[in-house]
Amino acid sequence: MAFLKPYLPTLAEPSRIPVHGVPAPRTKLSHAPWKRVTHFGHKAHFLAASLMILTAKRTKRCASRQAQESATLPPLQRLQRSLRFYSAIIPVLGQYIFRPWLRTLGVEKMGEDELIAEMDDWGSKRLQEALLDLGGFYVKTGQVLSTRVDLFSKPYTSRLRILQDSLPPVDAESIREIVSEELCGGGDLSELIRELDDEPLGTASIAQVHRGVLNDGREVAIKVLRPHMEPVLRGDVANLKLFALTLRGRLPVDYYPVFCELERALDGELDFLSEAQSALKVAASIRHNALGKELEAPLVVPLPIPGMATRKVLGLRPSAFQDAVSRPLLRFDIARCKANSYHEATMSNQKWVEPLQTEELGIDLGSSAGKALGRRILEALTTAYGRMVFSSGFIHGDPHPGNIFVLEGGKVALIDCGQVAQLFREQRLLVAEAVLAAAAYDGSRGMIELLAKCVRKFGVTFFEGQADEDACAASVALYLFGEKDVVFPGGYSKEEFSDKSPLRQLKSFPMELVLLGRASVLVKGVAARLDVAWSVAKKWAPLAKDAIAALCSEDECRLPAWALSSAAHQGASGSRLRFRDAARGCAALVRRWGTEKAATILTSSSKEKSKD
């Protein structure tokens, strides 16, 4: 601060404030013009110095906070979290070996089915409590497990669904401090926001969302990054990488490269400026087909409000949150039970009950109305992801049910564009060929070789020693895009934990294929959960044909959907004008007119008084 010393006034010598480095004369202020100018110069330099001091302090405070946020966990804390994870997971896994062994010795008296049910019930409770307690990236791992109804029993998938949107929230005061620092420079929130609800609309592993009202009356969904999460997440990924490396060859897939890629993807999830840009790209992608034609969006993507995006705070148009019946897709599996809420039902000691009805909408999923709703949800998701893949190659990479909302009238919304992937021209062509081959798969050797060729070109490699590597590669493609009842070639199994799973033979595969696989597996999982027959390959086949026609054109290289001129002219993607929005806009105009009219009257009266 030494460079500021010449500009700082002292109480002892108020007239010695320098102007442009020259000390002012030791004279009292008078009404002489030059002295009045000098006095104003003193004030200007004093204000400038004060602002420089405040800016320097704020910059130092922000730099210190940013350093704390981006720092990695100390080794001791990482070790503690790792030990807590292992102490919870080892008993869960170990019981499936130890207790059946005790049963063969006659120590366990239960029947096989009863024993498995009890182990699943105890193991799912223990795992849920451990993941909730640890938080961080372990929660994201639990979110993925909760969507795999084809692999894990109902107690696991049901209890782990709470990890998708119902985590313990950060206190409201901390949230207000973060929003104030990011959007108002540490000042009062009233500069920008009239209301900010203390109760969050949803809580997740990285952020939570609060409803707010701007000073002009617009509602906004404000997404806030959880404080001090970055070092925890990065430490957890390092632990999970070590876990995957230790169990390499014993898990159905080599998860080490997956966690390495997810570690790199964290940069986008922890930066809401990047997420705001991604949301615009996803919204543009689902509104165009592969030929560049603009169509109606199959679902809603909440878009960022201009100017309300920083690294830690993101203001969104609340398309997915303002409907009275808006609910995450995961809530459609909640049964009517004695507990007062989903959270209480999950955390209580009572056994989990079989999901029967959609409590919020009062629709029985087994009825014709429930089936129609299920098909509408699947149609929206399948069409949206098909357009993402083939119109631009820009894919929303985190499609767990907590990020999918069902709105009024069965409309679907897709939120949280933090984790994305970009498929480029050659990759999109390979996906198109693989989808068409999977849709037409007949078990012939030619089809197997075609699918294997697409998989290898995508960058997938396999461990050596395969009896029929083409069959293994083709089975991977069929796992991603094939029919529900398709038979894998070469005797490979669709069960991931089977020794004959083709996924066990994977040596490496690109992150883009992982995220694309998550999308296709999600749609299959939702179809299984809603008990609706559905084929991803057949639904995507027309889009794949258009993509091949568009991308292989010799006349021109088509722009991706997000780069088209029509992509810039979009409102809230997939939304329609509502009466309440129109009324709110009219009210804002009336208020503005009234304010300006009152200002004009006051100005006129002031002028008249000055003339008098």
UniProtKB/TrEMBL annotation:
Kindly give the InterPro entries that the UniProt entry links to this protein.
Answer: ABC1_dom, Kinase-like_dom_sf, Mito_struct-func_regulator
Q: Which Pfam families match?
A: ABC1 (PF03109)
Residues annotated as domain ABC1 atypical kinase-like: 163-301, 375-443
Q: What is this protein called?
A: ABC1 atypical kinase-like domain-containing protein
Q: Which organism is it from?
A: Durusdinium trenchii
